[in-house]
Write a structure and sequence with these properties.
Elements lengths: L2 E5 L25 H10 L4 E5 L5 H13 L3 E6 L8 H8 L5 E4 L18 H9 L3 E4 L6 H10 L4 E4 L13 H13 L3 E4 L12 H19 E3 L12 H12 L3 H13 L3
Parallel strand pairs: 1-2, 2-3, 3-4, 4-5, 5-6, 6-7, 7-8
Helix pairs in contact: 3-4, 5-6, 6-7, 7-8
Length: 271
Amino acid sequence: MKIDAHQHFWMLKRGDYGWLTPDLAPLYRDFQPADLTPHLANCAVEGTVLVQAAPTFAETHYMLELAAQNGAVLGVVGWVDLDAKDAAEQIATLAENPKLVGLRPMIQDIPDDDWMLRSELTAGFEEMIAHNLTFDALILPRHLKNLKVLMGRHPNLRVVIDHGAKPEIRHGQFDEWAQDMATLANETDAYCKLSGLVTEASQDWSIDDIAPYVAHLLECFGPNRLIWGSDWPVCTLAATYQQWHDMAQRLVGPNSAGIFGKNAQKAYRLP
């Protein structure tokens, strides 16, 4: 089964997508299941993981409603306020829905780089473990060392790193990111998403710009812990759904079977 492990839907009138402004003209409209269906068909993708795009409890309920209406959505990665005193209760309530497979705080947008290590978040992380939920780490390269510390504190927390931790491809930044990714991959059992890379490259990117980053992720995480995701519709700022799908398949070569399906099933406990 081929799975897209990272895609989004949104409806502008809901009003909680703070990052989504008219400046992002190609994305500043509704994106709904009917918009994605042709892309899935063209690439023979049979199921998806729907990922949060707003830091609100309401959006998570909205995504779960969409998932209930669309069989292609195998699981939802939602959001809770891990800083809240009732975070554990919020998680327990959401986890009653079998379509909820993970949670994702928007760490890349939080000013405090050490936020994930706050003691106030411990109860929330432990509740995620108790309900067998995956932690999607939406991080930047500067967060990688802290993520390793966090995983040491919670060794039973299943972690998926989004977008390869967003390496600065457009600026040719590689060495420090590569070392930190290798250390984390070697010393933890984290998964990593092969997604979001085209939008980290320059506007005139080529496959040669992205290939070294994909090769490094494959070397670090291997064919059993790397997971493909489209990051649609955000990917359309730099490439079509099919362009990224085909390029990723080309770059991972014979390793594509697990990366494009089985690994997502393991990481998110999908049916």
